[in-house]
Design a protein that fits this description.
Helix content: 40-55%
Order of helices and strands: EHEEHEH
Number of helices: 3
Structural class: alpha+beta
Number of strands: 4
Shape: globular
Distance between the termini: 33 Å
């Protein structure tokens, strides 16, 4: 199993509840296909560098998971089918990126506890 990181941007017109439902839907796609979700971060509403679909802001979300390569294709098909997703990118992490991601996860967890 490989380790992946996916970041997706949701349209800013969603309510907080709709955003959480959409993220849960993508987590379910991963879980149904046998992926192990390692980390989830909601970065919130951020201003984008340039307008996408006439929108200058979006809800940024990060999911880190371990899965087989075929799962990534199914996840990206789900992104493309959902009109709430403005942009997405999924990256396979090499051993150095995985180490960095683990350090970032631990730092983020400590910040959440405080």
């Amino acid at each position: 199993m490989n380790q992946y990181e996916t970041v997706f941007i949701l349209t800013p017109v969603l309510s907080d509840e709709q955003m959480k439902e959409t993220v849960a839907k993508f987590k379910k796609v991963l879980a149904d296909n046998g992926a192990e979700i390692l980390n989830e971060e909601a970065w919130g509403l951020k201003k984008m560098a340039y307008a996408i679909q006439k929108k200058s802001t979006g809800f940024y979300c990060l999911l880190e998971f371990k899965a087989e390569p075929s799962v990534v294709n199914q996840l990206e098909v789900a992104y493309r089918r959902d009109e709430k997703v403005i942009r997405f990118i999924t990256v396979k992490l090499d051993k150095y990126a995985a180490e960095y991601a683990e350090k970032r996860r631990n730092k983020y967890a400590k910040k959440q506890e405080a």
